[in-house]
Amino acid sequence: MERLRRQLRSRAARSRGPEWREAPPDYRQRGTAIAGILSVLFVGIGLILTNDFNRDQLAQQQKASQEQQDLALKGQRADRFVRAVDQLGQEGEDKLGVRLGGIYALEALMREFQADENMVIEVLCAFVRSHAPWNEEPSITPATPDVRAAMTVLGRRPDPDAHIALDFTNTTLGLKRFNLPGASFRGVDLSVATFSDGVLPRADLRATDFTNTYFIRADLHGANLEGAVLDGTRMRGTNLSGANLRDVDFLGADFTGADLTGADLTGPRARNLTTAQLACARVDAATRLPAGVAPPAPDAWQRKECAVVVD
């Protein structure tokens, strides 16, 4: 029986042919293929590591270069500031041009570098205080050209609410015909000064102290004087059309010949405004007055007794 089984298996094998038999495995070929795959893998890993290294090196070089540039820029800023301050300190009429150059150089620094704004403001305010000091004279001395230039730069400083307030304490500022539309002197002490014949439309003058200050024939149309102190302020012939005068202290303010058309003089903290103060002012239907204050006659400001007289 066993012999018969062997014969049958032998015949079946012969009938299938030689291709049916499995070829012995080629270990050399497999090893070569695996080695190729590993070599490609190692090359890829090497490229990745090299790329990361080069990227780190480039980043470090760029950082070092940026630090050097920043250091050089700081040095240039410091040199420019020192030179400008040195120019500002050169006294004498023959050095006026030098001082003006220093003022505008400081303005350039303030506009280029936000971090320098407060420092420049302090320097220019100190310059104004030292060159326009308080005096007891009955008349206000006209400010020198360099003081006017410093006030102009300070009045147009960038982003006024983002840095320190201006300090003009103990000064007497004679700024007739001061021309700076949109100026910002918010919350500043500008008492006992003159801006007569000045051009300051749309100026930000909120909460500013104008005690005994002159604005005779000045242009303040559209200006914001909310919360300002106008104690004894001369507004004769002043254009205040469309101005915001809410919550103002009007004690003794003189509005003879002033144009108050479209102006707002109301507010919960508005005080010390009388009908008599507006007797020679020009108003219209858009003018807003506090309760109890009567508007003047429509043509009152044109009467002879309402003519603007300069002190």
UniProtKB/TrEMBL annotation:
Q: List the coiled-coil residues.
A: none
The record ties this protein, via Pfam families, to: Pentapeptide (PF00805)
List membrane-spanning regions: 31-49
Q: Where is the composition biased (Basic residues)?
A: 1-14
Which InterPro entries does this one have? Answer: 5peptide_repeat (IPR001646)
- Which keywords does this chain's UniProt record carry? Membrane, Repeat, Transmembrane, Transmembrane helix
Region entry Disordered, spans: 1-24
Cross-referenced PANTHER family, in alphabetical order?
A: THYLAKOID LUMENAL 17.4 KDA PROTEIN, CHLOROPLASTIC
What's the name of the protein? Pentapeptide repeat protein
Which source organism does the UniProt entry give?
Answer: Actinoplanes xinjiangensis
Source species taxonomy? Bacteria, Bacillati, Actinomycetota, Actinomycetes, Micromonosporales
